[in-house]
Amino acid sequence: MKKYVLAFATLGVLASMPSSYAKDNIPPASEEEKPEVKPVSNYYIFDKDHTQILFFVDHLGFSKSQGEFHEYDGYFVFDQEKPKNSKVEVTIKTSSIDMDSDKWNEHMKSSDFLNVEAFPDMTFKSTNIKITGKKTADIIGDLTILGVTKPVTLKTIYNKSDKHPFSGKYVSGFSAKAKIKRSDFGMVYGLPAVGDEINIMIEVEGIRVDEENIDDKQETDLLGEATGKSAK
Known about the structure:
mainly beta
C-alpha cells in the first residue's frame, strides 16, 4: 500500500518542476488532473488515555453532577498553517456513559434519557472553524443526539503541539467547552428539577498519523479522505 503514497508524492514533485524541464516532453498536469490531497501529517487520532469527554448538569439545585463518556472514535485534521481548514469528526457510544453510579448509569441509558438501544451513537461533525485569537477558535458543527441534529459551538483553546517526551510521537492538545439544552434534542425527562442546560468540557490529546506509523487499512482510509473517495 505504501507505494500509493509514494506515487502521490512523485506526482507532486513532477508538478512543481520548473519550466526548463519542458524539453524532456513532460506535460504539465492540468488543474483538473491534480488530486487535491491533504498531507497525511495533518491527520490525528485520539490518544484515548489522555482525552476526556465530560459533562455537568444541575441536580435539584444542590450540585452539578458530572458524567463522562468512555467509548468513542474518530479523528481530527489540524492544519497549523491554516487552522481554519482543520476539522473534527467523532462518534460517541451512548452506552459508555459513566455517572459513578451503576443505578444512575442504567437510568441514563434508558428511554428517559439516552435511549441507548434505539440510539447507540451520538455524533459531532464540524462544519466551520472561526479563528478568534492566537490560540483560540470556535469549532462549529452538527451534534446529533437521539436522532436530532443541532448546531453546536465548541469554544476551543489550542494548548500546544510537540514531540512527546516519552513516546516520541508528535502530539497536539486542545481544551474545549460548549453548552447545550437537552430539551432541544427531545430529552425532557425530569425537567426542571434536573437541569436542562448541559455544560460540556473536553480535553483532547491527538497523535499525528505519520506514514511510518500507519498500517495498510489506515493508509487506505486516509487516502480516501484526502481525495474525497471513501474506501470500500
